[in-house]
Design a protein that fits this description.
The protein is of the alpha+beta class. The protein folds into two domains: about 80 residues, OB fold (Dihydrolipoamide Acetyltransferase, E2P); about 160 residues, Recombination protein O, C-terminal domain (de novo design (two linked rop proteins), Up-down Bundle). The protein contains eight helices and eight strands; from the N terminus they run βββββααααβββαααα. Strands 1-2-3-5-4 form a five-stranded mixed beta barrel. Helix 3 packs antiparallel against helix 4 and helix 4 runs parallel beside helix 7. The longest helix has 17 residues. It is elongated. Bound molecules: zinc ion. Zinc ion binds next to loops.
Length: about 250
């Protein structure tokens, strides 16, 4: 077991521990998700604290503490996003990304594409006027990278190719159910042909093309609900930040 490693990590979340310490959950480029103890960061004069706030990309030196837990030795910021903490909506959107990343990432299993996706999405939330396309791109890529890619090409029951018409979506079967098969599967929700078209496009294309395509305002709510209900199904639990985001829009 190594005594010490240096990693690049995105701070997902932290929680207080003891009198002055904090546990920090990181998604690292090299090791997947890591939880590490940051000693003394809640003291006024802590030099580490500022580098360990959520959504910060940092360079971190970790050492094995007693019992094998990681302890943060040194930390410096690589990139931070002050624009995010400026608005409640952006903070909630960024929390949505870190919450889902935290739930899907595996402890100490390298997943560099997931690390890059999370960092790029945080960067997009910080810089884009309208981060909606970046969030839906994140949803679909996250599902790809963690093995839950929904089938949007063929009916998940009869396997026939999906036609350009309104369809249904089954979270439990992981994809589109054609109108002929609807009825066999009760837990379906309708999906309009336009939403389906955008989901398919985002599933197949790079971010640059997706951004150029945008996402029409009138189908945003349908698309967002469909994806978040699918993610909730896969995770078998609610997404706290998504609920919060819906509440602040009311
Ligand atoms: Zn079918």
């Amino acid at each position: 077991m190594e005594r010490s490693i240096r990693v690049q990590g995105l701070v997902l979340h932290h929680y207080n521990y003891g009198e002055a310490d904090r546990f920090v959950r990181l998604l690292t480029a090299e090791r997947g998700k890591i939880s590490a103890l940051a000693r003394g960061v809640r003291r006024m004069n802590s030099r580490k604290a500022g580098h360990l706030e959520p959504f910060t990309l940092a360079s971190i030196q970790l050492a094995r503490g007693l019992g094998g837990a990681w302890v943060i030795d040194q930390v410096s910021t690589i990139e931070s996003f002050p624009q995010i903490s400026g608005t409640l909506e952006r903070t909630t959107q960024a929390s949505y990304v870190t919450e889902l990343t935290d739930r899907f990432a595996l402890e100490e299993v390298e997943n560099r594409p997931l690390f890059l996706l999370a960092v790029e999405t945080i960067r997009r939330i910080a810089s884009m006027e309208d981060p909606f396309p970046a969030l839906r791109f994140f949803d679909l890529r996250l599902l790809d990278l963690t093995g839950f890619r929904p089938d949007l090409q063929n009916c998940v029951i009869c396997r026939r190719e999906i036609q350009a018409q309104n369809q249904f979506f089954s979270a439990s079967l992981g994809g589109v159910v054609c109108p002929a098969c609807y009825g066999h599967e009760t837990a379906c929700r309708p999906i309009s042909v336009r939403t389906l078209k955008f989901l398919r496009y985002y599933q197949k294309n790079g971010f640059k093309d997706c951004l150029a395509a945008g996402w029409p305002i009138d189908i945003r709510s349908e698309s967002e609900q469909l994806l978040t209900s699918f993610l909730t199904f896969v995770l078998e639990r609610k997404i706290n930040s998504q609920e919060f985001l819906e509440n602040i829009r009311k």
